[in-house]
Design a protein that fits this description.
Layout: E1 3-16, E2 19-25, E3 38-41, E4 53-56, E5 59-63, E6 66-75, H1 79-85, E7 92-99, E8 111-117, H2 122-133, E9 137-144, H3 153-158, E10 164-167, E11 174-175, H4 178-188, E12 193-197, H5 200-213, E13 217-220, E14 236-241, E15 244-248, H6 249-252, E16 255-258, E17 268-269
Parallel strand pairs: 8-9, 8-12, 9-10, 10-11, 12-13
Antiparallel strand pairs: 1-2, 1-7, 2-6, 3-4, 3-7, 5-6, 13-16, 14-15, 16-17
Subunit structure: Heterotetramer of 2 PyrK and 2 PyrD type B subunits.
Function: Responsible for channeling the electrons from the oxidation of dihydroorotate from the FMN redox center in the PyrD type B subunit to the ultimate electron acceptor NAD(+).
GO molecular function: 2 iron, 2 sulfur cluster binding; electron transfer activity; flavin adenine dinucleotide binding; metal ion binding; oxidoreductase activity
């Protein structure tokens, strides 16, 4: 069930650089989301921004009564996200969600690699929580251009996972790309599953590595979209399914499987 309602902002705080974290409260009729799903947020009426913006669910809020809300981790990159950063506690915000198909966690997945680039870490925190609850051993790789783009490191460590950090300029962690770390790790270790979220060049390389080592891989794709429900067709992308020439990231994804049997570069398919 998709929930559309105005809910209250619990807090909206600056994290570092261009990054912010917002917590919102929800009602009892909001379906519990799964990792990888997203919400569409309507911008403030005084902003003159007509279209909703998509945001990955970063984590869930919990109180003594159970799940009571969720948090968003986002980067200010334009007018929409700047408007979002101006929200304050107890202000009402219009939310549509949870939307899309999230990550699939199998009971047989005993070891997993989570790799993200920049704001691609947003859905991975929620995913990591669920994997750890499932008893899955996790190896986390985070990449970014500079140290400003490396987020949630301390919280990952509190959860008992020490992320391996890569930055383009070497300002923190190892100088290089997150995918360098992925390939190096798989030279000596094995994993049942790879989960990835980040910019397209990173996901293309992750796909190449997953095929090379024959490891099942799920990718969370980022896309511009206006509705989140497959109506506007703004997030259409070519598919490898002859019965459906185009996927829509909002309803067929945003999480897709890598087609390990395909020779086409970056070839994906809907989650089985």
């Amino acid at each position: 069930m998709i929930y559309q309602h105005k809910v209250k902002v619990a807090r909206n705080t600056h994290v570092q650089g261009s990054y912010y974290q917002m917590a919102v409260k929800w009602g009892n009729d909001f379906n519990k989301p799964i990792p990888g799903q997203f919400v569409m947020i309507r911008m403030p009426e005084n902003s003159a921004l007509l279209l909703r913006r998509p945001f990955s669910i970063h984590c869930l809020g919990v109180n003594t009564q159970g799940y009571c809300g969720f948090e968003l981790l986002y980067k200010v990159v334009g007018k929409g996200t700047h408007a979002l950063s101006q929200y304050v506690s107890n202000q009402w915000i219009d939310i549509l969600g949870p939307l899309g198909n999230g990550f699939k966690i199998k009971d047989t997945t005993k070891s997993a690699i989570l790799i993200s680039g920049g704001i691609g870490v947003a859905p991975m925190f929620f995913l990591l929580s669920e994997l750890l609850n499932n008893g899955t051993q996790c190896h986390v790789i985070n990449g970014g251009r500079t140290k400003e783009d490396i987020l949630r490191t301390v919280v990952f460590k509190i959860m008992g996972v020490h992320p391996h950090i890569y930055t383009d300029d070497g300002s923190v962690g190892t100088k290089g790309l997150a995918t360098d770390g992925l390939e190096a790790y798989l030279q000596t270790q094995v994993a049942d599953q790879i989960y990835a979220c980040g910019p397209v060049p990173m996901l293309d390389k992750v796909t190449e590595i997953a095929k090379k080592f024959r490891i099942p891989c799920q990718l969370s794709l980022e896309s511009h979209m206006a509705c989140g429900m497959g109506a506007c067709l703004g997030c259409a992308m070519p598919s490898n399914d002859f019965s459906k020439p185009y996927y829509h990231v909002c309803v067929d994804g945003p999480v897709f499987d890598v087609d390990l049997e395909s020779n086409a570069a970056g070839c994906i398919q809907k989650l089985a």
